[in-house]
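A note from the maintainers: we've had questions about how concatenated examples are separated. There is no special marker in the raw files; a new sequence line simply starts the next protein. For clarity in this README we add a label.
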Amino acid sequence: MEEQIERMDAIAEDHAVVDGGQRKISLEPERIEDGDFVRICSAGAGEVLREVIEEVLARVDDFGTLERYIWLLQFSCGLCLLRDLPVGLSFEINKVIRSVANLDTEEYQFDPLMIHTIAKSLFEDIPLKGMNLVHVIKKLAVLNQKLFSYVSIAMIFAGVRHYTRPDQPTRMYRLYGLSEVLDLLESLKSDHLQQKSLDIQRIFLILKLLSCYQNVAILRYSQDARPDIEEQHRCFGEFFIFREEHKRSYLRHLALALEVVKRMSGRADHFDRLADNEDFMLVVELLELDMIPLVKDDLGEEE
C-alpha cells in the first residue's frame, strides 16, 4: 500500500485547501419542496397531506399491482424528503413506510427486472441524489425487508456510478457482489491517479453510499453460513456471500482512501489540526471512526 500512497502524493501536493471557504459537505438531506412532491406523487401537499396519508393507510392493501406499489414507494420516499412537513405528521409518515414494508412482495423480490424497475423509478423519477439518496436508502434498509434491501443496494451502486461516471447513465439497476465492488474501487483509484485534484464532496458521497452498503449487506449477512444465505436469498445468494480475502481487500481500499484524504488535507501528521477544515474532517471521521472499525470488527481484528 505504501507504493500506492506514494503514487498519490502528486495529487495531495496539487490539491489546494482553501481555509475559511464555505463547506461543501452537508450531513443532512437536501429535501424537496411541496411542488416537487406534487409532481412526483400527483398528491396534495401542505395541510391536505394529512388527509392523503389517512386515505393511503386505509387502502394500503389495495396497492397490489406493480404500478401502484411503485407509486406507494415514491409517495413514501417523497414524504421522507419533504422540507416543509405539517406539524405532527412524523409518526404517520413512519407508519406509511412500515405499512409498505409489510406488504407481500414475494412475487417481486427475486425478480431482477422488478428490482430494476422499482429502483429506477425511485432513483430517476424523484430523482434521488446527494444526501437525499443516502437518506432514502437508510429509511428503506433499516426495515430489513428483502425487497427494500435489494432495491437499496441497486440504488447505492447507481449512486456510486453516478458520482464516478456521471457521463454514463445507469442502464440496469441491479445487485452487486463484493468482488464487483472491489473492481469498482480499483477503477476509481486508477481514475484518481490521473487527476490533479479530487472533489471532496464527491468522495464523501461515494464513501457514504459504500457505508450504506456495508450496513445493508456486508455487516448484516457476513457471518451467516452459506446454506442460510442461499435459503434466504435464493438466486441472489452469491451477492451476499462475503469471503474473508474480499473483505480484507475492501479494508485495504478504505485504509488507502483514509491516507489519501489525510494527505490531501496537507496535515497527515496532525489529525487534530483537521478541525480547521470541516469537509476533510468529516471524510476522515467517516472512514476512521465508522467504516474501517466496523469492517475490522467483522473480521475479528482489534483496533
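[label: protein 2]
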Amino acid sequence: MDSTGTCWQDSPHGYGVVSRCLHWGMATLFAWQFVGAILHAWDREAAVTRWFWSSHGSLGAMLLVLALLRGIWGLANSRRRPPADPNIWGRLSSAGHLALYALMVIVPFVAMLRTYGRGKGFAVFGVPVLEASGQEIPSLMAVGNALHGWTGWLMLALIAGHVVMVAVHQYVWRDGVAGRFSRTRRTARPRRWRCRWPPGSGRCRPPAIRSRGARAGAPASVREPSSWLFRGAGACRAPGSCGCLAAGSNSRWRRNQPHSRARSTR
C-alpha cells in the first residue's frame, strides 16, 4: 500500500487495484465480444454486425493473454484474497469462478487452433502472430468448430449467473460482497452487522433488513429477522458489546452499546 492508502495487492477485505482493473477491463471486452456474437448469430450481413465482428479475433487473443495474467495474479494473491463462505453458496461460488476462468482460456484458445488449422494465419490488430501455412489441418478445424461456439455461449450463461448473484448479494443479502471490487483501501470493511437484541441473546441482524415474527419473550417492538434473509453468525457475547460476524468475512466486530458507556462513567 502506497502513501495515498491505495492497495495494489488483494487483502482479506477486498481486491486491490490490479485485480479490479483486470476484472472490469475484461468485463468490458467480454461485453463487446458477446454483443458482436449475438449480432453475428442474428444477421451476419448487417453493417453493425460487421463493425463489431471486425475486432472479434483480435480482442479474443487479447482476452486470452489477460486471462492468463489474471490467473497468475490470482495465484500470487490467493492467500490474501477474501475467503469464501463455508457453506453451499460459498462452494458453488468457487466452482463457478473456476469454470469461468477455465472458459476464459478455452474459448479463445480453440478459436486460435481453428484459425491455425485453416492455414490462413492470424493477426492481432494488424500485427502478424501466426504465419499463413496454406495447408489445412482438418483435426484442428474440427476441434475449433466443435468447441468454440457452445463453450462461448456457456460462458455467457455463467457470466449472467454471476451478475445475478452479485445483485442478490448487494440488494437481498446485503453482506458487502459486491463492495470488494469497488474499494481500493485496505481499511475498507464489509457491511457491519449490529446487535438488535438485548445483550446475551445471541441474535444479530443487518440494520437495513426488516424482520417479521416476534421472538418468544421479547418486547413487541423487537422482531426476529426472516430466516431466508438471516445470514449472520456470532452472538452478543457480553453486556454492552456485540460480537456479530459479518457475512462473507472472518473479522469479528464489537460495538459499544449506550448502556455500556453509561455504566463505565458511573
